[in-house]
Amino acid sequence: MKTPLLELAAVSKHYEVAAAPLAGLLSERPKVRAVEGVSLSVAQGEIMGLVGESGSGKSTLGRLALLLEPPTAGSVRFAGADPQADLNAFRRRAQMVFQDPQSSLNRSKTVGEILAMPLQVHDVGASRVARRARVAELLTSVGLRADAATRYPHELSGGQRQRVGIARALAIEPAFIVLDEPTSALDVSIQAQIANLLVELQQRLALTYLFISHDLRLVRWLCDRVAVMYLGRIVETGSAAALWQAPRHPYAQALLAAATAERAAPSGIGGEVPSPIAPPPGCAFHPRCAFAGPRCAREVPASRGDAQTNVACHLYDGGVA
Amino acid sequence: MIGFLAGRAASLALVLFGASILIFLVVRALPGDPAVALMTQNATPEMIAEMRRTLGLERGLPTQFALWLGGALGGDLGRSFMFSMDVSALIGERFPVTLHLALTSLAIALAIAIPTGVLAAANKGKALDHLCRVVAMVGISMPVFWQGLLMILLFAVTLGWLPPGGYVSPASGLGDSFAHILLPSVALGTAYAATVMRMLRASMLDVLGREHIAVARAHGIPERTLVWRDALHNAAIPTLTAVGFSFGYLLAGAVLTEVIFNLPGMGRLLYESILARDYPLVQGLVLLNVAVFVAINFAMDALYVALDPRIRR
Amino acid sequence: MLESEPLFRVRNLTTRLNTEAGAIVPSDSVSFDIAAGEVLGLVGESGSGKSVTARASVRLQKPDDAIKAGELWFAGRDLRRLDAAQLRELRASEIAMIVQDPAAALNPVMTVGAQLTRVAREKGMSEQDAAARALELLVQLRIADPTRRLAAYPHELSGGMRQRVLIALALMCKPKLLIADEPTTALDVTVEADILSLLDALRRDLGMAMLLISHNLSVVARLCDRVAVMYAGRLVEIGPTPSVLADPRHPYTAALLASVPRGAKADGPLPAIPGEPPDLARLAPGCGFRARCAQAGPECEKPQTLQQVGDGRFSACWRAIA
Amino acid sequence: MNRGKTIGRLLGIVRRDPLAAAAFLFLLLLAIAALFPEQIAAMSPNRPSRLRLLPPGDVYLFGTDQFGRDIFARCVHATSVSLLVGLTTVAIALLLGVPLGAIAAFRSPGKIDSGIMRTMDVLMAFPPIVLAIAVVAALGTQDIEIGPFTVPHITKVMVVIGLLNVPKVARIVRASVLVERNEQYVMAARAVGASEARVLFREVLPNCASPVAVYATLLVATSILTEASLSFLGLGIQPPQPSWGGMLADSRTYVMSGQWWLTVFPGLLIFLSVAAFNLAGDLLRDALDPAQITRRGDA
């Protein structure tokens, strides 16, 4: 098998909880375990989906993949190498599109300035004229008119702003893009436009995506493979079609049932995602799981399967008893 | 809650300590020899040397600081040369005057600021609101010393209703005491009232625009309750810190007020001690000023905790 | 009141709001009925005016003079003629409301119990009865350890729990009509499923009618008897939910339904609606959707009104009427 | 938030609001008086005459003082120094406060942040007027010679007031940078590989300009007031140079004997200048914060 473009090996991210100045002296500071021992590989040209509910750590994982935050443990490899070795080169090849098109564009800069910034940082385009041409080209490629360059973000609609956000990510011709819920702040009718644009760009520019979303339908439509996260861990990875047809992990099953329900019906997994400060022992999902047994409270289930398809559940690993 | 207050106490103690170092250094690092400054023009070198020894000036700075701070913690702030008495005793004599002034000002200010701030916000954009905003703008822009002089001119000189200055302790007659403290308190309290009113109005507007007010309204909670209970309680929280902060400054503003109205308080004492270069007295008074400021801030933090369940936990 | 008279009847509701961008008309001649015990879904994208319309229809939109025209009849009473005190009597006991963001919708400095009981106390219920009612509702809403939750402050609860408390607040006085403004938008899908199913069960128990505002067709499909689709301040289609979803009679409804992903990428691009929703400050007469409509013609520049196009079905597209 | 829009909005407010128009007109008058005092006041501000304590009249618009000097001329000539102090002190406060606050926020939480902010807390714990009085009194009211340089007393006053305001500016800047730092465009800039300095100074700080500009305008008002207070106590601008605060101090003797014009006119000028800057700050806030106006619109 080819070397994956992106490879996360057992990465974790813990945050210290901000506390009163003296609290730290009295006891160990509590930690938020946002991401816990996640391994994931994304192949060249693939669209990898990452689904999970709020607090599952999916956005943190996206930032870790781009080294926008240093992982507490584990390693990130890009194209077979350590991206830390030449961070500047890595930034040129790996980019990000953000959730909130309002907040992700600097409100005091014009669209042209926003798009020119990555070019300046990486010294692309020798002259001002060349840069302006590149900005116009970028705008056209995301379906905006070239004269949008003179506008301010607040003069654009949400969908147009998100197109600018995508154009910014494309500016320095990356190979890999993390898309952090790029459509969730948009209206349904605009979501479809952006989703189509993303697919078209991916095919035309041979891009690789890590697509973070909580929308299972969209993930199924857009992604080749999907990883499901729960409370900082990946519980199941598989092809989008397989996960949609027959999810194996009980959490993935509940998620799919809730997303496709036609009548008002309980989710079957009462309660809510527990706090990542004090995750339940064993399988973090066991307090909400209908199939849980004593073993689930004791033992963290290991991920079984290969790098492509796997599940972390005792049901598939000798039983829950 | 305890953690929060302990944390605040620790950082305020740190502030107080830092401030005491600063006071000490500023006084020591000044050009000129305090010993010389304390003496009359024709002092002999022997007399100056003697004074240096009395002041402990021949020792190293850290030692001097430790001695001074140790003394201050034990209530010994040194001796005032101008008054030939202990600084702490002098402060004990003058502090009640300033406290009386500050508390009367505070009472006047809050009595004005709370209702006007709330009503202005509740009637936003209407005549009452505009009037309150204009009056508040006048209030914060009015120099306290000018206002004091104008009030003396009007109420004492022209109308002759109130005395132009001086202090009478409440112990020697409540009515007379009130007549003497009224003008200075109004002069000092005006700017404070205007500041609090503006802050309260802004936070009230913010809270009144929030969803929980709309939801409570949608469930039949009367407008009066929404304004005076729901909104005021929420708006009081951000206002409080600023209120405490400016109350510390209000005590300081007493310098000008006490000078104008001839009140024998700490502010005038500070002014006189500075003019006379009475360093032990200056040090003691500034330190006390900072300590009071820090104490007020801590009291506000405690109040904050009482008002905001999100911190209480 | 006649037997056939609906619980809530809105006729030609028109609102106007002043914004920095100019005056906008979030609801332009909006009419709908809700029968007792019925659930009407009001679907539209952000900025379509659905929330303002819903709030104005029960006179909860501020400023009150945003309502420019229309009739609002609730249980035989003309809401537009009621003064503030009379309106307040209706609140909670007849009409209640839940909103999108439960974190912002609860007073952060009051305990859950105090917020619940004071609503009933305003209606003259005794302190004990109000406390008992609050407890009963928390139990019905499946809140674990309800007694302790009553003494808790909102920030001590999770998002889903806060939304349940908000529902309890709305149901304290057993209202006849609940305005539910995007009640689950801020929640995760599994929590959303639980809240929707609870809301549905409680509503049936009380025989309560509901106006459910949502941008999410799937939420509306799960809960509503009938659905009204709003676009650019106007209702474009209204009818029984199953038949509207199965056979939309307005091009906008059809396009909206089609743009939800239903298959895999191999099935081809998503049928997206081109362009952007129009600016409410610059609306021309005629069909608001015509600029984005694949079937638009000169006929669409004339004002369109809702016309019956079948059994209980109405559409504002001349093609559907013809 | 482009500049043209802000100016347009500002003009709109001025046109609608007569009070705003009055404030800007007064600031304009102040500027003219500060730049061309000789042309505005016919008399000399310092020449004594035998016409002592004359009430206001045709020749002496504001009357004369105890030395027979024209109060109007003195008031006009005092304008430039008050404005100079007001503007210079704010410039000093901005020059130090903006980078300190910005760096603290960017390094928050951390040792650099707590170091800077604790120091600021210590400075803030001194009631400003007390510290100003103490320092100015300690440094003396004479010019000081440092090596070959002569530091005029007025410069000392400006530096002291300026330094007093540094912590306030630092706090405002820190608070708004902390808010900005949470915006996604900051991470977006990092993601494309922009350096920390570029992110802070070219992406984040321009967005903090509005609150800082508003605060700086209000600070001019405060600084003018502080200078007047110091001069009133005899520690600020030294006679015979005219200053509003100093004139008020002189007038104290005549309050009891009813020569009201000595008190009223200089005080009125302090008050009006302070009020004008305060109003300008409020208006700037409205013009720079369209969100606030929108909120007003729909609430």
Q: What topology emerges from the helices and strands here?
A:
The complex is a heterotetramer of chains A (321), B (313), C (322) and D (299).
Chain A: E1 6-16, H1 23-26, E2 31-42, E3 47-51, H2 58-65, E4 73-78, H3 87-93, E5 94-97, H4 111-121, H5 128-141, H6 158-170, E6 176-180, H7 188-205, E7 208-213, H8 216-222, E8 225-230, E9 233-239, H9 240-245, H10 250-260, H11 294-298, E10 304-305, E11 310-311
Parallel strand pairs in A: 3-7, 3-8, 5-6, 6-7
Antiparallel strand pairs in A: 1-2, 1-4, 8-9, 9-11, 10-11
Helix pairs in contact in A: 4-5, 6-7
Chain B: H1 2-29, H2 34-38, H3 45-55, H4 61-73, E1 79-80, E2 85-86, H5 87-122, H6 127-141, H7 144-158, H8 174-208, H9 211-218, H10 223-261, H11 266-275, H12 279-307, H13 309-312
Antiparallel strand pairs in B: 1-2
Chain C: E1 8-19, E2 22-34, E3 39-43, H1 50-57, E4 67-74, E5 77-78, H2 84-90, E6 95-98, H3 102-105, H4 112-122, H5 127-140, H6 146-150, H7 159-171, E7 177-181, H8 189-206, E8 209-214, H9 217-223, E9 226-231, E10 234-240, H10 241-246, H11 251-258, E11 307-310, E12 313-315, H12 318-321
Helix pairs in contact in C: 4-5, 7-8
Describe this structure in words.
- The complex is a heterotetramer of chains A (321), B (313), C (322) and D (299).
- Chain A has 321 residues and is of the alpha/beta class.
- Helix content of chain A is 32%, strand content 21%.
- In chain A, strands 5-6-7-3-8-9-11-10 form an eight-stranded mixed β-sheet, with helices on both faces. A three-stranded antiparallel β-sheet of chain A has the order 2-1-4.
- In chain A, helix 7 links the parallel strand 6 and strand 7 (208-213).
- Chain B has 313 residues and is mainly alpha-helical.
- In chain B, 79% of the residues lie in helices and 1% in strands.
- In chain B, helix 1 runs antiparallel to helix 12.
- Chain C is of the alpha/beta class.
- Chain C has twelve helices and twelve strands.
- Chain C has helices at 50-57, 84-90, 102-105, 112-122, 127-140, 146-150, 159-171, 189-206, 217-223, 241-246, 251-258, 318-321; strands at 8-19, 22-34, 39-43, 67-74, 77-78, 95-98, 177-181, 209-214, 226-231, 234-240, 307-310, 313-315.
- In chain C, helix 7 (159-171) runs parallel beside helix 8 (189-206).
- Chain D is mainly alpha-helical and 299 residues long.
- Chain D has helices at residues 3-16, 18-35, 37-40, 71-106, 111-124, 128-139, 153-181, 184-191, 196-204, 209-232, 244-255, 260-288, 290-298; strands at residues 144-146, 149-151.
- Chains in contact: A-B, A-C, A-D, B-C, B-D, C-D.
